[in-house]
Each structure stands twice: as C-alpha cells, then as structure tokens.
Design brief:
Number of strands: 9
Strand content: 15-25%
CATH architecture of the largest domain: 2-Layer Sandwich
Distance between the termini: 32 Å
Shape: globular
Largest sheet: 5 strands, mixed
Number of domains: 2
Order of helices and strands: HHHHEEHHHEEEEEHHEE
C-alpha cells in the first residue's frame, strides 16, 4: 500500500481507503452486509481477482473489515465491516449526494447494479404526500427489480419483485432516475425508452429530498 507520507488526517485516511476499488469494496459491504468473495466479485465488475484479494488483505490489516467463517450450510468465508469500517457509511452517503450531478451521463459500457441505485433512491428521494396512503412502485432498471415504498414521508427500497405494485417503471436507469427526480416529464422519459404502467398520480408522490443536490445540468467538460 502506497502512502502519501504526510502527517495529516486526510492523507492518512486516504492511505487506507484512497486506492482504486477500496471504497467500492466498503460500499458493497455497507449496502449488502457480510459478503462472500464471489458476492464481492459480482458487485465489483471489472476488478481482477488478485487485486480484490490484495485490497481485502489491506482493509483487514487496517481494521476496516474482518473475515469470519459462516456456519453450515453456507460454510464459507464471509467479509464484513468492523465497527471502524461502519463509520465510513456517512462518507459513502455524502459521496452519493455529491456524485448525483455526475450521473447525468451514462457511458454505454457502464455497469449497473440495482443495489447501487436503491441506495441512491433512499438518500435522494422522499414521499411528497406523507399523510396519504402508502404506494409501491417497481423499478426495472438494473440486474434485479427494485421495490420503492412510500412510508410516512420517507421512501424505502428493497430488491426483488413487488406483489401488486401501484406502478411500474421499466427502462434505462438514467431517464428513469430523471423522471423520479422530476427532471424529465413523462413524455420525455418515454422518448428515452421508459415504459410506465399504473396511475400517473403515483409519480406525484415521489420527489427529491430537500437536502439532495440535484443534477440540473451536466457537469462542465
């Protein structure tokens, strides 16, 4: 592990989590809980197996993650965040909010995982009508369906299909997210490949959280 060799808390933090892929490993464990090695590989498309093994050893040495043997029938090694690793969650949340304006562009080769988007939805969207009856929306925008549920002014997500959703959105993730954030009108979303079923009033329930930094325009090149 390379070091900045600076007596500075930021530099010393980056000595631990600043290498390529390191924070994304922390992201996977923060979003999914204890993971097998193969789970991490699936959530980190593009990482070389030997590099993942190196990063896991470094994080374990730094006290950020720990490994444990799962009991049968799993009977395999699991990786989890330690209490010190859990303290990185607010940093990850802030990176989601800070990085949202950068998601105005999606390259053709960009990988998509539903649990990444589900986390961003909970952080950046809210129920605009908290006193109304709950609604459920199923999003088909990644490798698994995302169920979005309004509840008391907040929005909760889970992976998997909904039994009887009030609405369903299917299409590329960028225009679907734009529609949910109020940045695209339904007609524009449809023109960008989004299919919507259900009452249109359901979308009125969902809007940006007041503290979300909205991607109103593409970042300067």
């Amino acid at each position: 592990m390379r070091s900045y060799d600076e007596y500075c808390a930021i530099a010393k933090s980056l000595d631990v989590v600043g290498d390529r892929w390191t924070l994304l490993i922390v992201r996977e464990l923060a979003l999914r809980g204890a993971c097998r090695y193969t789970d991490l590989r699936n959530g980190l498309p593009g990482i070389a197996s030997n590099l993942l093994a190196d990063r896991l050893r470094e994080l374990e040495h730094a006290g950020v993650i720990a490994r444990e043997d799962a009991p049968p029938p799993i009977a395999t090694t699991l990786f989890r965040l330690t209490p010190r690793g859990e303290r990185l969650r607010p940093l990850l949340d802030d990176l989601v909010r800070w990085g949202l304006p950068l998601m105005t562009e999606q390259k053709p080769g960009d990988a998509v995982r539903s649990h990444w988007l589900a986390s961003a939805i909970e952080l950046t969207l809210r129920d605009q009508q908290p006193d109304a009856s709950p609604v459920t929306v199923e999003l088909n925008i990644g490798d698994q369906p995302i169920v979005l549920e309004t509840r008391g002014g907040t929005i909760h997500t889970r992976l998997g299909p909904a039994d009887s959703p009030d609405a369903t959105l299917t299409g590329p993730p960028m225009p679907v997210m734009g529609l949910l954030l109020g940045l695209l009108q339904p007609a524009d979303a449809r023109a960008n490949g989004v299919e919507y079923t259900g009452a249109t009033a359901v979308l009125d329930r969902i809007g940006p959280a007041v503290d979300a930094e909205m991607p109103l325009a593409a970042p300067p090149s």
